[in-house]
Sequence to fold (285 residues):
Amino acid sequence: MTQAIILAFLCLMATALNDFVFKLYSEKASSRGWFICIVGVIWFFVLLPFPHDAEASALQTLLWGCVSGFFSLTANILLIESMRWESAGVCSTLYRLNLVLVPIGAYFLLDERLTMKQAGGVLFAIIAVVMFFPFWRKNCEGHSGGRGYLLVIIAAALRACQGLSYRLGYLHHADKNLVVVINSLFWVVGGMLYALFAEKTALNLKDKRQLAYGGFSGALVAAIVYFMASMLNVKEGNASVCLAIAQMSFLVTLGMSVAFLHERLTFEKLTAVAAGVVAILLLTV
Fold:
């Protein structure tokens, strides 16, 4: 159990740091698309050597790898874009509440029961979103117009779809490790296309800041996947407790934002974060 808890905290720290890197990079003038592409390249080469399941269905692996890869790519592009307009702590908190949408989706798609405890988690998540809303209204004037709030909500919904597609894929005997490798290829190709057609920017290999941020984030993403898989693979570990710990990364991201980016803490924001913590605990423990 101790080993699983340590791995969960390592996953939490890697996730929190990666969200903070997203925020730092989102404020730079460099291309978000090429950043995503670089992250995908590092992610691909780190995870490619992982063992693969010879008995898994190649067709199902390819299908669900592509479906989840699309959701993963679009969710993270929107998360980075949202951080251009809004604070890292708030975006990270709302994004992690994607966990709330998974049991709702599972209820309709997988015929899974929605328990009273899960319903309570959904209610507290709604409270968190509503409590953030006054903060957004105070800061939505000017060029933002509440854009960041909308983008991160959509990103969270897409991230929930990614989680559901993983579950559906594994139920159809897709290879767990290869699905994630296919996801990384979506980041490589999708990031490239986003840069060329949406941002209309070419890759600048002389941009050391872009390469450094992308390489560091790529290593963190690979670490997140590795720590998550490892903690769930510990036989003595409690999966619910470990997942709850890992999902609390937004608390560390918020703390880093306050300490290093001088993000202001308001009553609404603190209440929303507390509601988010309760929601995740109800949904995972």
